[in-house]
Amino acid sequence: MTHVLDSLIVGAGISGLSLAHGLHQNREHPSSPNILICEHQRRVGGNITTVSQGEFLWEEGPNSFSPTPELLKLAVEVGLKPELVFADRKLPRYVYWNGQLMAVPMSPPALVKTKLLSTGGKLRALIGALGFVRPAMGVQLSQQNGEETISQFFERHLGSEVLRRLVEPFVSGVYAGDPQQLEMRSAFARVARMAYSGGGLVAGAVLSRRQTQSSKPAADPSIPQTKAGELGSFRQGIGALPEAIAQQLGDKLKLNWQLTRLERTENQTYRAEFSTPEGVQQVEARTVVLTTPAYVTAEILKPLQPQVSQALAEIPYPPVACVVLAYPVSVLKQKLTGFGNLVPRGQGIRTLGTIWTSSLFPDRAPQGWQVLSSYIGGATAPEIGDWEDDQIVAAVHQDLRRILLKEDTTPKVLAVHLWKRAIPQYNLGHQQRLERINQGLQTLPGLYLCSNYIDGVALGDCVRRSLGRADEIRRFLDK
């Protein structure tokens, strides 16, 4: 290209697309940045993978999203407001414990009545939640630079039963991670802040609620109003969102462009070289945003900033397989009304959890069929990354036989998608790694990182972070 761009964005997953939308939104304005977004695949969306086959519709990446204000506003701005669908927040979530599906208690009265915890476990949790907690101290904590793992934090605050039966399966569902390695402040920052600032989880929650209400902006009438606990999607699946953003970007988006080199120029800009279907292309830009995974970004930055590259390379991504199976409803033990089930480790079940996909959103399966999306692998079972598809299906089907099926049958296999490197793990030392990354980036003004290894893996986190980066880039360009 013969002219210098204001911003080059590498990667057209939800992070890159949201950021590009944030920069491109006021494109009619005279000072609107001149941008280009490049993606090495032939499609947009990154991990968002919506697939349809006949009357079946399913996801092979994220299955739903928490309807954050930023995400909903983005959906409205790209014309998807009529396509939004929300799962009933009153639908129960289940944990498979001791051979039974038990509803997760979602309120204090439900917590009192639940059989998922013993009387002693409930009392222990209540005492800890009220703030009667021993301080975080000891040799092991000193060796961890004062950082607590998720296991250490919740066992200290709420006891071992809550940890094993509620927290650990939830961690599997969000991160596919190991709670004995994930660092609390990084993985569950909001909960950690409540505990450390409020004198206990209950007091912290009350304080947090008051602060949120006092600083909460007025409701935006243009976006749908939702309630806590709802999950969202679109009628044609989550893939509708990246497709809609891409359509608005038009020729600002290049697919099948593989970044091969990035260097700093004598003019304090950046020169990027791409392998494309039209041959080698060079792009010069005042700012560059890398929205690629940590391990990809590490390779890109190795010649430019070895310190940043090394810190990025230390962030692990365990393998996770998404297995989508369909069964006739007649073979199920019961009508599946709920979000799905999670499985604590130690129950003789390999599968981390199963989303009852066609129970959540309409028109995901033909009449008389149930679609189940199961996840297996993660940090506690990395060997899944070496398995063949038929082995993975057999393991998941065997687990579903025990949990949900009343008779054996051959499932309709809709998908087996093995993500060799799935979700970044915020393990012990994560904050120190981020500090090293931020320090190293000071030597590269105009270069930004924006991906889910930073401060949140959910779709809403990605959109929030990306729109914030867009504001940073605008300020940089204004200077």
Structure overview:
- Strands 1, 2, 9, 10, 11, 12 and 18 form a seven-stranded mixed sheet that branches. A seven-stranded mixed sheet has the order 7-6-14-15-16-13-17.
- The protein is globular, with a radius of gyration of 23 Å.
- It has helices at residues 14-24, 69-77, 108-113, 119-129, 139-143, 150-158, 160-175, 184-187, 189-198, 201-215, 240-249, 294-301, 306-313, 357-360, 389-403, 430-441, 459-478; strands at residues 4-10, 35-39, 50-53, 56-59, 84-87, 93-97, 100-103, 231-234, 253-255, 258-264, 270-276, 279-290, 320-328, 340-342, 353-355, 369-377, 412-419, 447-449.
- By secondary structure, the chain is α/β, with parallel strands linked by helices.
- It has three domains: 4-46 and 67-83 and 235-315 and 426-478, FAD/NAD(P)-binding domain, CATH 3.50.50.60; 107-215, protoporphyrinogen ix oxidase, domain 3 (Orthogonal Bundle); 318-419, Polyamine Oxidase, Chain A, domain 2, CATH 3.90.660.
- 36% of the residues lie in helices and 21% in strands.
Q: What are the defining features of this structure?
A:
7-stranded mixed sheet, 17 helices, Polyamine Oxidase, Chain A, domain 2, alpha/beta, 18 strands, globular, 3 domains, protoporphyrinogen ix oxidase, domain 3, FAD/NAD(P)-binding domain, 479 residues
What kind of sheet is the major sheet? 7 strands, mixed
Number of strands: 18
- Give the CATH topology of the largest domain: FAD/NAD(P)-binding domain
CATH homologous superfamily annotation of the largest domain: FAD/NAD(P)-binding domain
Instruction: Using the coordinates above, name the CATH class of the largest domain.
Output: Alpha Beta
Computed CA radius of gyration, to the nearest angstrom = 23 Å
Going by helix content, strand content and strand pairing, the class is alpha/beta
Low-confidence stretches: none
